[in-house]
Amino acid sequence: MQAQLNTLQDAVRQAAAGRKVLRLRGGGTKDFVGQSLHGEVLDTRSYAGIISHEPTELVITVRAGTPLAEVEAVLAEKGQSLAFEPPHFGPGATVGGMVAAGLSGPARASVGAVRDFILGARFINGKGEDLTFGGQVMKNVAGYDVSRLLAGSWGTLGIITEVSLKVLPVAPAEATLMCAGLAQAPALDLLHRWGGQPLPLNASAWVHDTTAQPAQDMLFVRLRGAVAAVESAVGTMTADAQALGAQVTRMDNQQVAADWAASREQTLPFFTAPSDDACLWRLSVPQTAPVLELPYAQYIEWQGAQRWLWAPASAAGALRQAVQTVGGHATLMRTSRSGGEADRGVGVFTPMSDALQRIQRNLQQQFDPQGVFATGRMGA
Q: What is the DSSP string of 63-80?
C-alpha cells in the first residue's frame, strides 16, 4: 500500500507546484452537499483495507478508501458497530468520506458524533507531507486534537488516509415505541423530560405522517441498553405518552430496523421532494429549542436538535433568522429539481462570524498554504 500512498503524495506535490486545485473523492455519495465544486478529481479509493481490529480493545484502524459497508460487516461479525450510525447515501461510501463529511445518524444525540469516536488519524496536507495525529486509545492527545478536527472538514484540510475509531458492542436489548397522536409541542416536551431521566433513550423521530389514514402526528423512540433497563423504560415511557393521550405500540425490532435505516439514509417518504422548487433544509438547534413557527412540514430527530424541512431556496433568509433566534443554524442539504445549482446562490451554509472565519482561514493556511484543496465546497 505504500505505493498508493506515494501516488497520493505525489499528486498533491504536483498540484501545489502547479497551483492546481484537487477535489478529493471517494465513493462520491455525498457530492450533493456543499457549494458548487471545482478542481481536478483525485480518487482516494485505491488506498483501502482494514489495518487492524482489536475487538477486546474496541478499536478498529482502517485506510480511508475502505468501503464503509465492509467495515460495518467486519464489526457485526464480532457483535460491534459504529454507534453513531453514519449515513452512506449510496453503496460506494468510504470511511474517509464518512470522516470528512462528519455526518451522523439517528443515535447521534445519545452516543455522540463521528468526531467523538476518532482516536487518531493520518493524512496528507497541502504540502504533500504525511502526518499522523492521535493514536489508538482515548487518552492520547497532548495539544491540539487535529485528528478530530478533520471530521466535517469536507476535504479542505488534506487527504485523510487512515483513521482509528472507537467501536462499541451492540446493545443486548432494543425496543421501539410508536406514539400516535402526539403533536409537535407535547412530543418535544416529552422528549426533553425523558432526556433528564436515566432512561436508555437512543434515538427519536417525530413527523406528521401523511401516509397514514387518516394523517396524524407520530413520535417514534428507540431504546437500547441492558435488558432490564429497556424493559423498565418501555413501561415508564408508555405510561408517560398515554397520559398525554397518545396511542402507544411496541414495534417489531426486525421490521422497524428498516425504518431507522431509511431515516439515516433519507429514503423515508418525507425525504421525497413535495414540489419542483423545494430544497431540503437541515436545521440544527439546541435540543431544548421550542417549536419553530414555520409554514413547512418538519421531520424532527435527535430529541429535537435536528429538524428537516422542504422549502424553496428563496426562504433561506426566513429560515436562518428563525433558527438563529434559538441559537441554531440552517444548511441547504439538497437543491431543488427546478433550481439545481442556482439554489446554492443563497449559501449552503450559514455564514460564519468574523472570528470563526479568521480561525478557518488560519487553519487552511497552516494545512494547505497553496490552496490545493480550495474547492469552494464550504464557501469562500
A: ETTSBHHHHHHHHHHTTE
Structure confidence at residue 162 (pLDDT): 97
Cell of residue 254, nine digits:
426486525
Contact call for residues 61 and 135 (beta carbons, < 8 A): no
C-beta atoms surrounding 163 within 10 Å: 28
For residue 138, count CB atoms less than 10 angstroms from its CB and return exposed for 0-12, middle for 13-18, buried for 19 or more: exposed
- Answer yes or no: are the C-beta atoms of 45 and 160 closer than 8 Å: no
Q: What pLDDT score does 48 carry?
A: 97
- Rounded CA gap, 120 and 141, in Å? 9
* Residues of the chain by 3-state class (helix, strand, coil), percent to 5: 35, 25, 40
- Residues 194/233, Cβ–Cβ less than 8 Å: no
Task: Report yes or no: 125 and 64 within 8 Å, Cβ to Cβ.
Answer: no
Ranges of residues in the chain whose predicted pLDDT is under 50: 140-141, 143
CA angle 324, 145, 52 (to 5 degrees): 120
Q: What's the pLDDT at 37?
A: 86
Q: Which are the contacts of 16, defined by CB distance < 8 A and separation ≥ 6?
A: 126, 127, 128, 370, 372
How many Å apart are CA 155 and CA 94, to the nearest integer?
13
β partners of residue 175: 223
**pLDDT tens-place string over residues 108-131:** 999 999 999 999 999 999 999 999
Grid cell of 304 as nine digits: 429535537
Contact residues for 52 (Cβ-Cβ < 8 A; gap 6+): 59, 60, 61
Strands (E), 210-304: 216-225, 247-251, 279-284, 298-301
Do 83 and 181 touch, CB atoms closer than 8 A? no
120 within 8 A of 132, measured Cβ to Cβ: yes
Question: Cell 427546478 belongs to which residue?
Answer: 338
User: At which residue does the C-alpha cell 446562490 appear?
Assistant: 345
**Model confidence pLDDT, tens digit, residues 363-372:** 999 999 999 9
pLDDT at site 227:
98
The upper half-sphere exposure of residue 28, i.e. CA atoms within 13 Å in the direction of its Cβ, equals: 5
User: d(Cα 235, Cα 175) in Å, to the nearest integer?
Assistant: 11
